[in-house]
Each structure stands twice: as structure tokens, then as C-alpha cells.
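Why do we care about 3D structure at all? Because function follows from shape, and shape follows, mostly, from sequence. That is the central idea of this module. The next example makes it concrete: a single protein chain, its amino acid sequence, and then its structure expressed as C-alpha cells.
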Amino acid sequence: MPQHTDTRQSSGAPSDSGTPTDPAEPGAASETEEAKAADGGAPASDTEASGEAAAESTAETDEVTEDTAEPAEDSTEPAKGDQTGEPAETAQTAQAAEPADTAARPDDTDEPTAEPTAEGAEATGEAAEPDNTDEAAAKPAQATEPAAETDAATQPTAKPAETPAIRPWQLRRGWRRWKGAHPVAAGRVSHGVTLLALLLVVAALLLPNKEAQFQAAAFTRLPVEALLLGAVLLVLPRRPRLAAAVLGGLALGVLTLLNVMDIEFNQYLGRSFNVVLDWELLDDAQSYLADTLGGTVALLAAVGVVLLVLAVLAVMVLAVVRVGDYLGRDKARSTRWLLMASVVWMTCMALDIQISGIPVASQHTVVMVKYHEQALRSTIRDERDFSRTAEADRFGQTPADELVPDLRGKDMIFTFIESYGRSAIEDPIPAPGVTKTLDTSTRALADAGFHARSGWLTSATYGGGSWLGHSTFMSGLWVDNQNRYRTVTSGDHLTLTEAFKKTGAWDTVGIMPGVQKGWPESKWYGLDKVYNAFRMGYAGPKFSWSTMPDQYALEAFQRLEHGKKRDKPLTSFVILTSSHQPWAPIPKMVGWDQLGDGSVFKPIEAAGNRPADVLTSSTRSSEEYGKSVEYSVTALTQWLERYGKDDTVLVVLGDHQPNARVSGDHASRDVPCSIVARDPKVLDKIADWGWTEGLRPDHDAPVWKMSDFRDHFLTAYGSTPHPSKR
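And the structure:
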């Protein structure tokens, strides 16, 4: 940064440091007194002098106590106290304390006095002479008593002296003094700070937006954006350059934060951060942290995020300003270096020079800006187009008696298992336990008279956002973002549960242990009743995010709805949550007759793993994820063995794949889906689907988009299409 020398002087004497001297400093007061004494100014009245002396003493005492005045710099001309052989502070105190012949008037004590020593001398009726400074300094010591008595009367309780805080000007002065005393070391520090600022700018311009792209070669590139920014800063005058540097730093800070958000979203949701739609997910993330690691950790994380955002913006602004100042110090030299770097960039671009397969000539930030700009345009365009798509429904106008006639009299259960994806069946870590559980459950169900067919569905979401998978499957629309979810749930597009309700032949119910607040979407799903986390009578512990074990939720479903005698069969929408991340602690199966109010799970939860122990290891997360899926599948199939009837039809599937820490960076979005029934006619209706027998689909079993299932299902069971008009 260029240094500016302050040309102001204290009472005509030049200052060594160039820092302006406060008029209230001792040295300045003494010199003013000498000037007035030499000019032989007319003496003031004794009464006025006494009042002014008291006011001066009070003002100076307040200044010393509050420490608001800046200490004086060393002057080439000694202060008056120095001339008499006494310290400057002693001389100042003595001069300000000169006695008055008459009592000070109360209304004069508030008058400001800029020249305390000179007026104190005039109050004695004597001309102040330079060779009598010792005597003049000794006299005022008695005048402090009236001022002290006045202060004591007006301020009965004295305030203790406070330790003065370090002020920015003190830091700057200390740096200047150290810089003057150690010029070589100061120069190295200055160059080091400039180099660090340049590295920060370059690193921010090269920062990848996916964790898998973090490698040394990614940061050895030459960004064209740095060359463009340097050229702009180089041609501008000082003040416009400073403004451009601040704006450039803010823009670079925002891009850095977007890259960080992309990294996290790609890790957990398999996609980049949407600057329009994803802000409300941050609240869900904080709730997840509170449920997983505790409210204190969630609060600290929120505060930390805010501080990180501010720090990134501030650091990037300071870095760009520092680089801009360095370029402006020697424009000729900076121009030469900038031209050389530009030639290197163009050469690398023309020859396609690469390091570890990564081009040296980088346009990363330009590409990322274009990507986010296109995503923004796509989001706005998609909102308009999807509204028209949601209005069209192949079965929107189908009469009630023509909906699912081949399932009349059946108890229909649509069940989602949280994070139950292809990785659970095919990934080397969780697959052995999960496939064994699926095969064992298939045999157990067969012994109970149930048979299954299974295939693959490609979910509209990944790693999270379960409600997007639920709505996609049930509506037959591709609901892959929050805006689409709001659009479809506020409309009347037919869902599977609504189709059964529309016939008038079924009651409908929702079992939602993960719902802990209002859920207006229940109307769109066509549910007569909804049991959320607080309506199932559970008195046991939470298992991290999951409010209750799946075994308890299924038993509550049996007790509250499925096991009751009723006039109509039941269509149920059941969401199981025990396999939700972070997969710690995991419930264990207990005797179905021992479930009670869920208190039996307290020692199981206490003995389980802690989330922090699992989240830190990808391998451990995969292992525990597999165990959680095993538990959910076991709980569901045992419930079906125990409570299933001849007319029971179960459709079970996963809502999405687990996050990338478990499923990997390039995992598919496929989830298994199975239809289970005792009545062989139910499975005969889907014989042409080509699905695999049992609960475990083959690797090459048919793969459909999750949004295609509704129409396949309605058609297979006799529904007649009657499209709705736009």
C-alpha cells in the first residue's frame, strides 16, 4: 500500500513520525503558553482566571481518565517541562493547577479553554517570563483543590480507571516504527502478504466445484480471468482501481461461496446448488444437524457458516485490493509481467498443454459463471413449462368405476424405505448383508404364502429430498426440484392414493413418522387420516434423525388402523425412516409383543453408535448404512408375515440412493421396487413387466423412470385412460 506522509505540525514544530499531534497534548499546551507570555497578553480578571483554571483542570482530568487523547509524538523542540528539568506531565499538572484569588464561578466551569498555562499565568497579574518557569510550574499545584471539590460534589461515586483499548492508529504507528527500524524484514513481510493475496485470488479462480476434482494439477493452471482482472486494475487510476478491486473481490468471494455450496450439494444430493430454489433447504440442513448432533452443534454450525461467509468476502476483497495496489506501484513493470503471462496462456491454449489431463490454460471461472447463468435461465423456463405439463393427466378424467377395478377388495400398502438404493444391493460393502436379508426374507414370505416381483426405478432425487421421490412415484410426474414440488402439490394431478380414494371403495391413511410439523400435502395425496411423529404414542428415544424405529411405526400402524375391523379395505401410504442418514444409532429387532410404548428401545439407543463416530469414515458409513437397510427390510417383512392377509398387496421401494459418501461419485439413481401379494392374480397382471422373482431384482432387470410407474400400475390393474384437458 502507498504510504502518505502527514504534513501537519504541532505548534510550529515538525513531528518525527508525521502523525498529527492532538491539540490537548502536554507539549502543545506548553508551547502555546510560551507564545502568549512572550507577546505580553493582557491579564484576565482574577475571577475569570479562577473559573477557567478550574474548568481546565476538570477537562484535563477527564482526558487523562478516559484516555481519549492521542499521545504526542516526540518533537524536535522540547516541551516546557523538559526545559525546567521536570517531566512534561508534571509540568502540565502544575501549570493547570495555579490558584486563583477568587472562587471560580459555577457558570464558568464549562467554558472550554485552549490555553491553560498562559491564562493561569495571566490570572496572577504577572508577566510570564521564560527564566521563571520553575516558579510558574510550582504555583498552580494548589488550584486543583476547588476543581476536585466540584467534581466530588457533582460525582459522588468515582469511576475506576479503565484499561485503554488498542486503537487502529496505535497499530499503524507501531507498524511504522517497526518498519522504520527493520526495513529489510518489513519489505519481506510486505512482499509475502502480496504473494499470499495473489495466491488466494488464483486459488479462488481455480477452485473446483466437486470434491473428486481436488488434485494438485487443478491448482497449477493459469486462469485467464486473473489476466483480465489484472489488465483492468492496471489501466485504471488509483481511486477507480480501488473501487474496481472491491467489486471484483466481492464477485470473486460470491463465486467461491457458490463453488463451496456446489461441493456440498454434489456430495449429498448429487447435483449443484440451485441459486433460486435451494435456499430453503438450508433450514432443513440445520434441523438435520440438530437431530443428529444436537441443538448446540447446529447453532454453532449456523454461526460458523455466517462468519465463514463474511470472512470469505472480506478476505477476497482485501486480496484483490492488495494485488491492485501492487500493480499500480510500477505500471511499466506490471505491464511487462502481464504481457508475459498472457503469452504463456495463449501458447498453452494453442498447443493444448496439459498436466495430468488438465489443461494449463484455464477458463474455469468463465465456465462456472456460464453454468450458473444457464441454470438460472433453465429454472425460470422450467417453472413455466412444468405448470403446463402438470395440468395434463392421462387418467385425470377417468371415472371412479374405471380406476383400478382389478384390485377391488385389496388392502393396498405403498411403502417407502429411506435411502434404499441400488448401492445397498450391489456395492461391495453393504451388499453381502443386504442381499442375504432380502433372500432370507423372500423365503420367509414364501413360507407365509407371499410372493414378490422386483425391478428398478430411477429416482428423481439422490442422497436426500425424499419428498421429491415420493411425489414423483405417486403422481407420475418428474418432480426433481422444490419448485416442481410446490407446483404439483398445489394442483390436482392424480396420485395413486387419490385414485383409490376417488373410487369410493377404499379408506386412505398416511403413516408419517418423519413428519414433525404441519403437512398440507396430505390433501393432495388424498389421505383421510395422517399419523405424524406425535400421534403414534411413542415414548422411546429418537434414533438420530429418525423419530422412532420402523418396527414400532409398523406396529402402531397395525394397532391404529390396519388391524381394525372396517367396512372398506384400506389404502395406506407408509414412510419408514430408520435407514435415514447418518445411520447411527441403529435400532434392533425386539419381540413384537414387547414393543409397548417404545420404551424398550432406550437401552438399545444408548448402546448404539454415535453419529460423529460414523460420519467421519466413508467405510464405516457404508457398513452402518447396510445394517440400517437390513433392519428396515426385516421389520417390514416380519410385519407382513405377522399381520398380512390374503387380500394384502404391498408395494415397497426406496425413495433414493444414499449420498456419495456411501454410493460413490458416479452412482446411478436407481432404487429397487417390489410388489408382494398372496393372490397370484395380482402378480400375473404384471407378468409382462419382466421383473425378477423375489425381493432382490437382478442387475439387468428392467429400469424405468420413477415417474413412469403410476401409469404402468394403473394400466396393469384395469384403469381406463381419460386424459384431462389443459
